[in-house]
Amino acid sequence: MTALRYLYFPGCKITPFLPEYDHATRSLMAALGVDLKDAELNCCGYPVRDVDLTAAMFSGARVLAVAAQRGLPLLTPCKCCYGNFMQVKYWLKRSASLREQVVELLAKEGLYWSDGVVVRHLLTALKEDLGLERLKAAVKHPLQGYPVAVHYGCHALRPGDVTHFDNPLAPTIFESLVEVAGATAVSWPMRLECCGYPLWEKNNALALSLMQRKLNDARESGARALVTACTYCQLQFGSVRLEHLPEDASCRDLPAILFPQLLGTALGLPCEALEKRGFQI
């Protein structure tokens, strides 16, 4: 079987604030025979999309142009980055004036816009490119009987006609991948609600309230852990939860586990390769 190769885009937040996501992703994909290529890349543009659309589209288009230049699909573990790359493909296809501005800016660096670059989030790469059967064959220690609540996050799912990640109202990709690891994805009413992180440092009380409601719902639904595949959601359920929820909050001890840590455990990868800290699966 030909090895899969991607241009790897961790985004801006992972390396400084969530390095365990990067390490676990690299370890998992290496164990599965996937080749992640690195390059010096700029921000995806997501943080400025509501401030300057042209800047956001150019930032994302530049990354996609580098991927096209190298002849590689793009893979990111960040759902916000994935969402913005898909926004770039969507809007540059539909707005001639915006496309002309971006093409002109790219040309200054000898880069060219190509709509044909395939963009994958970590989850879609695992399911659509590697496939569930290949993943099942790699599992050595299935996590039988381990109940988890999968947290989808917002920016990969919505708007569905832009991101094409999964059915935004009834997604199943995350559950199917969790089940490959042998774990059980519990049914919980708030699985598609926002984690609250976009409100952090704007309205902290509301951000914490949204997070606490989700954690309580996951716990009451029988989950022993929350599983994420989003940089911002993991920061919210990880560091923000531990630093800012009251010590006596009943949901404070529900761990947030990154999906490559979960699947990597089922593959038998060592703890140090997955950077598992403060929890056991």
List the keywords:
single chain, 281 residues, Glutathione S-transferase Yfyf (Class Pi), Chain A, domain 2, Rossmann fold, 2 domains, four-stranded parallel β-sheet
What can you see in these coordinates?
- The protein has 281 residues and is of the alpha/beta class.
- It has two domains: 5-122, Glutathione S-transferase Yfyf (Class Pi), Chain A, domain 2; 141-267, Rossmann fold, CATH 3.40.50.11810.
- Helix content is 48%, strand content 9%.
- The model has no long low-confidence stretch (mean pLDDT 95).
- Strands 2-1-3-4 form a four-stranded parallel beta sheet, sandwiched between helices.
- The chain has helices spanning 14-17, 19-31, 53-70, 79-94, 96-107, 122-130, 132-138, 160-163, 173-180, 204-220, 231-244, 259-266, 271-274; strands at 5-8, 35-37, 74-76, 119-121, 147-150, 184-185, 225-228, 256-258.
What is the compact description of this entry?
The protein has 281 residues and is an alpha/beta fold. It has 13 helices and eight strands.
Helices and strands, with pairings:
Blueprint: E1 5-8, H1 14-17, H2 19-31, E2 35-37, H3 53-70, E3 74-76, H4 79-94, H5 96-107, E4 119-121, H6 122-130, H7 132-138, E5 147-150, H8 160-163, H9 173-180, E6 184-185, H10 204-220, E7 225-228, H11 231-244, E8 256-258, H12 259-266, H13 271-274
Parallel strand pairs: 1-2, 1-3, 3-4, 5-6, 5-7, 7-8
Helix pairs in contact: 2-12, 3-4, 3-5, 4-5, 6-7, 10-11
